[in-house]
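Session log. Operator J.P. requested a structure for one protein chain; no other inputs attached. Running the standard single-chain path with token output.
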Amino acid sequence: MRLIIFCFLFLIASAEAQHVFFPVESQQAYQAYRYQYRGYRRQVIDPALNLFRQNLAFKTNDSIVEVQIVDAVMADNIFNQPLFGFLYKDKVNFYSFEKKDQYIVKINPILHFESGQDDSGMIWTNKRGLEIKGNIGGFEKGVGFYTMLSENQALLPYPYRYFTDSLNFVPNELFYKKFKNKGAVDYFQARGYITFNAVKNYVKFQFGHDKNKIGNGYRSLILSDYAPQYLFLKINTDVERLHYQNLFTQFTDNGPIMSNVLFGKRYGAFHRLSYEFRPNLIFGVNEMVIFDRIDSTQSNQFDFNYLNPVIFYRSIESNLGSRDNSMIAIDGSWAIRNKYILYGQLVLDEFNLKFLKSSPDWWGNKYAYQLGVRFLDFLKLENLDINLEYNRCRPFTYSHMRPTQSFSHFNQALAHPLGANFAEIITDIRYNYKRWQAHATVIYAKMGRDSALNGRNYGSNILRPYTTRFSDYGSVMYVGKVTELLSANATLSFQIKTGIFADASLNYRKITGSDNLFFSLGLRINSHIKRFDY
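Structure written below.
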């Protein structure tokens, strides 16, 4: 960890500015994704690697593209003149101030009030916070930064209180406390990072606390945005059509989450090498490893061997004599006539060709794959997008013999929220018309689950060690308690002012043995809608 900080401080002295990124779950990020397939090259945005740049109104050719992206999100809803003479001066951010070529700062309030009803009674959300973003040192020589703080209280829909009661976490969040009402929770959310160019236009750094996502789909089987934010150092290197990403992370162990104790740590090292065969055809190769290093004093340190950004992690693992949780993956996307996007992922946790042929139900055949297609401006209707996606994951994928090295963070999956031993079909529809935004998602999943949290291990719960597996053979899909999940949700939003939305949501969740219908009405300012899709 000290070495990471040292390298960071050393490089920042000669750093040049890089724009901050859109949060991975935001509407702006999705709009940037669409613009990738409207003829803009990867130097502007790369959706597969979450290089969604935030508009900072710099007077450069690059920022012109970014202004177009932000304006597309804001539709025709911008202030013609600053409010009270000093608010919304740039027509997008609540308050901003700058000094040409020296600094620029933009500040936005964050508010989200929502109330509704489900089968158990009232549900609600209360969120207040602040977002600050900008650049110090100017566009040519400076550092971009982003920070977001919010205080939250919520009474989640009844089915999602299960995670708090049984697995001791609030979905998508870190440490929480119980709130006044029975079942309500109180949690604090903080994100922040800085970005800079170490080598102009070639090597870019990002360091801080946030989520990351790799992939073009609704889900990601490599690294998703389901788990909460975490400490990371990201290095992106671009040379012509070649892109190389390194991601070094610190996660929280999946042990008991209690207050007034130092949580256990686990670490991750990821790298992705992608090549742009054509502007519309990208193929990537990924390698991921999760590890811990608990010694006799129970201290847990980052293994500096994994800091090497240009080495095969599997060779490090073998040379160290370690049993870390390493995986490899491939991903790709192909945009056809700027209307259709075909994409996919394949993750190999363990792979033995001999057993795959002779014993396909061997427990160690651990892999997952994704196939998807996205239709942009479907039927030539502008801003109508439809996404069809299929995900399939074998039992015991992402798990490990040491629970501290499962592919998880704060008891939550780093990849798919359903863990493993499932197949899933997703239909996702988005439509924007002027100030209106409509979003509907229908998900059907079939899973094989344990009969109880501590029952026989059938490979669905990635937090359990695979050494407790029910058998070496017989690991067919959906082995265990066959469970079906149907999740449908629809949200209609109206943009009142820049960044201010009124929402109406309707959700239905049916899982074998129970179902739940819930709806809500809300008002949010510079906030994102929380998804209930698992």
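Operator note: The domain at 2-525 is CATH 2.40.160.10 (Porin).
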